[in-house]
Design brief:
This protein has 414 residues and is of the alpha+beta class. The chain has 13 helices and 13 strands. Strands 3-4-11-6-8-7 form a six-stranded mixed β-barrel.
């Protein structure tokens, strides 16, 4: 009962001196609001990172890319067959941790292939030969039609699956691309499917827009028509079944490729683990810096609360003396003032939560095209709890000081 009375008195003190109370609570409000916004930004960043990582194949994706042999192997470079479809076959047989394999051949390795249809042009596209597994590894999604099947390659069919932007460039909204013929470097290909549009905005641009400018052909058809029948590949990508064993699978792939390339290290393996590590490092940096700002604000707010409560005790010293003279114990005075400090912390926390919600919404509006900050319930609870704790810690010394006042000296105070 005494504790509730103390909290009620604390709220009354806040309402009785609005300007002083606002200055008292300012540090708490800033600390709580910045804490909520900080956690919201980190969670928004992580959500955006996970989405981007998913769109680009996830941690499960491993790629084999060409690289120059080390200096001591330069004279052996010619004995390696290079990256071919045989690499895919060898890894499929010898590395059980790999669930999908995608040998790929690009007409132009860096894109830039123009596709035409009836006077309409679609520039700067990535046209490449693929196998069915690429849709899983590269996270393509079909909007209409079907994807390339193994039988399409075996029979040398001239079919294509096109990206959403390619479809927009070559066809009007009223036209159905399925069954239509497009021109790739003077050769006709029948459209059998259209990918769903891939969108992931970052820095005001769609960072996965290249997926919308993809044109997929059967691998064997592309090798025969654009590579003279050679089995040399542009890329070779894999999907690992269990990320927990990623390092072991990568080592097994490395060993298999060394054997297939006759001991020549003319390749390197790339994973997205480095990108994930960089994001985690950024996350820790943000948490440290923004958490420090929040802690400083709460610390300053606590000092202000301590000073204001000490000033309040001086104003109410006769009141405290009267209560002691009427039988109030030190514990009663201490508990009452701690309750007032808790009330100040609760009010500051509530206002800080409201300010934090407003700040998160403001950041969403100010940062279009960026991963939006998220309102995290645990952050709201943490901010409010931190404000309550700050109020209790800040009120401990003034409450202890008031509890030790001599009643006679307090009554004689003018």
């Amino acid at each position: 009962m005494l504790f509730l009375t103390g909290m009620r008195d604390g709220v009354r003190e806040i309402l009785a001196h609005p300007v002083r109370s606002l200055l008292t609570l300012f540090g708490l409000i800033c600390g709580v609001a910045s804490l909520i916004a900080m956690i919201g930004m980190v969670h928004g960043m992580l959500a955006g990172w996970r989405a981007f990582l998913y769109e680009t194949g996830g941690l499960e994706k491993v790629g084999s890319v060409a690289s120059r042999p080390p200096a001591y192997q330069k004279h052996l470079a010619g004995i390696s067959p290079g990256r071919t479809a045989r690499d895919a076959e060898g890894i499929w047989r010898n590395v059980p941790g790999v669930t999908h394999i995608s040998p790929e051949f690009a007409i132009d390795e860096y894109g830039g292939t123009e596709v035409k249809r009836k006077g309409r042009r679609s520039p700067d596209n990535l046209v490449y030969g693929v196998v069915p597994d690429v849709i899983v590894i590269n996270r393509y999604e079909m909007e209409r039609g079907r994807f390339i099947a193994s039988l399409d390659g075996e029979r040398g069919r001239c079919v294509a699956v096109i990206g959403a932007q390619v479809a927009k460039d070559l066809f009007t909204p009223a036209e159905d691309p399925l069954g239509q013929t497009i021109d790739v470097k003077g050769q006709p290909y029948r459209v059998i499917g259209v990918f769903r549009e891939a969108v992931f905005m970052q820095g005001g641009r769609n960072v996965v827009a290249s997926k919308n400018r993809s044109v997929c052909l059967p691998l064997k058809t592309a090798l025969l028509r654009f590579n003279g029948g050679s089995e040399r590949l542009t890329w070779l990508n894999f999907r690992v079944g269990d990320v927990e064993h990623l390092d072991e699978v990568v080592d097994a792939i490395q060993n298999t490729l060394v054997i297939l390339h006759r001991g020549v290290l003319d390749f390197s393996l790339e994973t997205q683990e480095e990108r994930a590590t960089e994001y985690r490092r950024t996350e820790r940096s943000l948490k440290t810096s923004m958490g420090g700002v929040s802690a400083i604000s709460l610390f300053v707010g606590g000092i202000v609360i301590t000073n204001i409560m000490l000033a309040s005790i001086k104003e109410r010293i006769r009141e405290i003396g009267v209560r002691k003279a009427l039988g109030a114990r030190r514990r009663d005075i201490f508990m009452q003032l701690m309750a007032e400090a808790l009330a100040i912390g609760a009010v500051g926390g509530a206002l800080g939560v409201l300010a934090g919600i407003g700040l998160v919404n403001l950041l969403v509006w100010l940062l279009p095209g960026q991963p939006p900050p998220l309102l995290v319930p645990s952050a709201i609870a943490l901010g409010f709890g931190a404000s309550l704790l700050t109020g209790l810690i800040a009120g401990a010394y003034p409450a202890f000081t008031a509890a030790r006042l001599d009643p006679i000296g307090a009554l004689q105070n003018e």
